[in-house]
Write a structure and sequence with these properties.
alpha+beta; 2 domains; seven-stranded mixed β-sheet; 10 strands
Amino acid sequence: MSIVVETKDQLPADVSTPEYHYAIVEQPTIGPQERSYWARYALPRLALMSQEEFAHLREEGPWLVALGEQPDIEFTRLQQDLGKTAIHGHLTSYLPLAELAQHLSDALLAQDNNGKTVLLRSYVPHVLSVLHAHSEHPWQSWLFGPINRWTVYDSAHGPVSFSGGGLKSLPDYTPIELDSALIQELGADPQASALLKTLLEQAPEVFTSADHDERLKQVEGALDGARKSGLKHPDDISLFATIHLLEGKPPNEDPIWPEAMRLVEEQHYELGRALETVLEARSE
């Protein structure tokens, strides 16, 4: 079964302008075999993690892959060679590869309801479906404006296609803003998303997997441990989780923890100041 979701501002097809076909590819592991595949099978592709702070993650994907003059054959070959789970979508657009890649790269970042920049996997089925449904937001027409059709592969419903605006040029950038209701609909923890972004930029070695969902679970687990420790302030919770991930064990397993926690609860110290105070006192 295939589902098609139309956009009210969709433009009629333009037969005078060439339409390009693309796939979004994100492989769960990147090793010698995966690298040799792309060396042999030279389809044009560009990394969507184009931001400088994520340069060290570009090889992992996601990638926008141009499918050439036989898109159906090329797409099927990608599915067969890489596995269907590595292929996150099939897009058509009037934009050439470099322009569409830049557009989709911009869509990987969003602003949460506290104004923090978070990573957003806007290309996966559930997220894309939620974003497409919110046409009341100005960023929705920006995101889908230069798309003709975007098909994702949902495990429950099979192929689901979303129509776009059919623009022939890049629209002015409009940041994706996530309010509380949208965050809840996406099922996202904004604190986890923000901390994940920071750690990917500054300490990617803390992660035990190249898979985005597994990394997010690591961060969520560390944050959950911080909340269970009794910490209340978001900054203290983030610091606890960061220390846990960097050092490999939670701070509340350290002998100084009870004293530091007493300063947090009774003297209203920030966690960082409390830990530093206790360490200084013990070193004297």
